Amino acid sequence: MTKILVTGGTGYIGSHTVVELQAAGFECVIIDNLSNSKLETLDLIEKISGQRPLFVRLDLRHKKELADFLEENQDIVAVIHFAGAKSVGESVTNPLKYYENNVGASVNLLQALQAAGVKNLIFSSTAAVYGEAEKIPVDETTPIQKPSSPYGNTKKMIEEIIYDVCVADEDFQAIALRYFNVAGAHESALIGELPSGIPANLVPFITQSAIGKLPPIKVFGNDYPTTDGYGVRDYIHVVDLARAHVAALRRLLEKENEMNWEFYNLGTGRGNSVKEVIDAFEKVNDVKLAYEIAERRPGDIAEIFTKTDLANEKLQWQAERNLEDILKSAWKWEKTLR
C-alpha cells in the first residue's frame, strides 16, 4: 500500500482524515506531539476502520528527531500536514507561540522532506488568509490580505514558503486546502472535536454548554454589518473535509494537477450566522440553549463564506452534509463523552 505521513494525525481533522485515507486503501503513519490530542484516538481509529495506523510521538520543532524518522521511513510518498496550534484568540495573546509552533515547525518539515526526497505535500490551511475580504463569497481569485489574527498570518506565511519551495523545485508538488469552519463528528460518534480547555470554536462550545459542562454560550458580538447582526461563517462537516484531502492526494499522486502549486477553498458555499446555528441546534436536537451577548472578540471578522466551484471541478469533490447533519453528529459525539 502507498504510505502517507500525517502530521497531527491524532487531532480532530487529522484523525477523521486518517480514517478516510485508510478506507481509500492508503497506509498511514502518524506523527504527533499529543499537545492537543490523545493517544487513545489510535484505538478509536482502529475500531472504525479495522486498521491501526503506525504512530510516533514526535514534535516537528525537533529537527534531528524528524530527520531520523524520515530516514527510517523511506517508503513515505506524500505528507498531509495538519500539525499546528489553531486558536485565533490564543494567537492574539501569544503570537510567538504560533510563529514558532506553526511557521518554524513547517520550515523544519519542508527541510526534512527535501533531504528525504519526499515530493508531495497537502497543507492544512485556512480561509483566514483572505482577511476581511472586500467581496463575499470569496473564491480562489480573491486577493490574499493580511489576516486578522497571528494564527491566520502563520498559515499565510506557510503557504508563501511552500510556494517558494515549489518555484525552486519543479518536482515538488503541493496543494493547500483552505478550510472554512470545520465542525461535526464521525457518524460512529467514536471520534470528534475535543478541544483542550474552553473551546475556541462555536459548535463545541454549544454542545458543551448544552450538556452542562460550560455556562451559557457567549456570542461575541451581535452588531456586525450582517443580515441579523451576528457573525457569519461557512460551516463544513469534518468528514466532508477529510474526504477532500483524499481527493487532493489522488490528484497529486496521479499527476492530475496542472501546476506544482495549487490551492482550493473547502466549504459548502453557504454562510450561516451564529444565531442561525444556535436556532438550528435547538431544532434538530430538541435542546434549548442559553446564550448571552458579549463584546466582539479580537481577530474575528464579520462574514466569510466561499464558492466551491474550483474544488468541485478539479478535485471532483463536494460537501454532502449540511448544517443540520453537522449539529446532529456533534451532539451525538458530545453525549458519548459523559
Concise synopsis of the structure shown:
It is built from 11 helices and 13 strands.
Could you describe the 3D structure shown?
The protein is α/β, with parallel strands linked by helices and 338 residues long. The chain has a domain of 214 residues: NAD(P)-binding Rossmann-like Domain (Rossmann fold). 40% of the residues lie in helices and 17% in strands. The protein contains 11 helices and 13 strands. The strands form 4 sheets. The protein has a 7-stranded parallel beta sheet with strand order 3-2-1-4-5-6-11, with helices on both faces. The protein has a two-stranded parallel ribbon with strand order 7-10. Strands 8-13 form a two-stranded parallel sheet. Helix 1 packs parallel to helix 2, helix 1 packs across helix 8 and helix 7 packs across helix 11. It is globular, with a radius of gyration of 19 Å. The two termini are 38 Å apart. The model has no long low-confidence stretch (mean pLDDT 96).
Low-confidence segments, ≥5 residues, pLDDT <50? none
Write the CATH architecture name of one domain.
3-Layer(aba) Sandwich
Order of helices and strands: EHEHEHEHHEHEEHEEEHEEHEHH
CATH topology of one domain: Rossmann fold
Helix percent band: 40-55%
Under CATH at level 1, the class of one domain stands as Alpha Beta
Could you give the order of strands across the largest sheet?
A: 3-2-1-4-5-6-11
Structural class: alpha/beta
Distance between the termini: 38 Å
Count of separate DSSP helical elements: 11
Assign an overall shape: globular
- Average pLDDT, rounded to a whole number, is 96
- Approximate strand percentage: 15-25%
Q: Cα-atom Rg, whole angstroms?
A: 19 Å
Beta strands, count: 13
The main pleated sheet reads as:
7 strands, parallel
At the fourth level of CATH, the homologous superfamily of one domain is: NAD(P)-binding Rossmann-like Domain
